[in-house]
Amino acid sequence: MFGHMFLGWLPKSAYGIVHELTRHILKRPVVAICAISRTPDGKIVLVRRADNGMWCLPGGTLEWGETLTVGLARELEEEAGITRHEVTRVLGAWSDPMRDARFHAVTITVVADVDPPTKKPKNPLEILEVRAFAKAELPAKLSFGMEDMLLAAEHEQTVLE
Q1: Residues 46-67: what's their mean pLDDT?
Q2: CB 3.0–4.6 Å: which of 52, 115, 132, 141 could bond 84 by disulfide?
């Protein structure tokens, strides 16, 4: 909240640039949240990233002043067009600094029951498409090494990395 008040005089696009630069300058991990989103028919919702063309779990970093719950709802809607979800389990936390070349993120991963996507991704420059995959159709490799998150969910493990 303070960041928004302090930089309130900046246009929103300039604030976004300042926000990203600040995260890199401070050299502190950012907090992210993502979900293994299961539709009623048991499919897993993935999003395909524009920057590398790979599939990944929907999610992202928290905004200043945002809780994990609010951030998850925002990210699911923005990236995957999911407007209703129910978290069924906290799967764990992943913190390997090499997972994402852009920055060091601590990613909290949850398992959630979701309604199928009803909207397109809000930012087509970030997310190219959304798809619900049956287990047998899931890509073998996901962006940011997220396949280990799917594996942990499948084996009902809790992870602290």
Answers
A1: 96
A2: 115
CA 48 to chain centre: 12
Q: How confident is the model at residue 2 (pLDDT cuts 50, 70, 90)?
A: very low
- Predicted local distance difference test score (pLDDT) of residue 115: 98
Name residue 31's beta-bridge partners: 106
Is 129 tagged catalytic? Answer: yes
CATH code given to domain 29-160: 3.90.79.10
Mean pLDDT of 80-98: 97
Structure tokens at 96: 């390997």
Q: Where are the domains of the chain?
A: 29-160
As a whole number of angstroms, the distance between CA 121 and CA 77 comes to: 8
Cα dihedral 3/7/8/11 (nearest 10) = -120
pLDDT of 1 strictly over 90: no
Catalytic residue among 129, 137, 154, 161: 129
pTM of the predicted protein model: 0.84
Which of the 8 DSSP states describes residue 10?
A: S
Task: Tell me the backbone φ, ψ of residue 156, rounded to 5 degrees.
Answer: 55, 40
Alpha helices in the chain (DSSP H): 2-6, 12-26, 68-80, 147-154
CA distance 86 to 146: 21
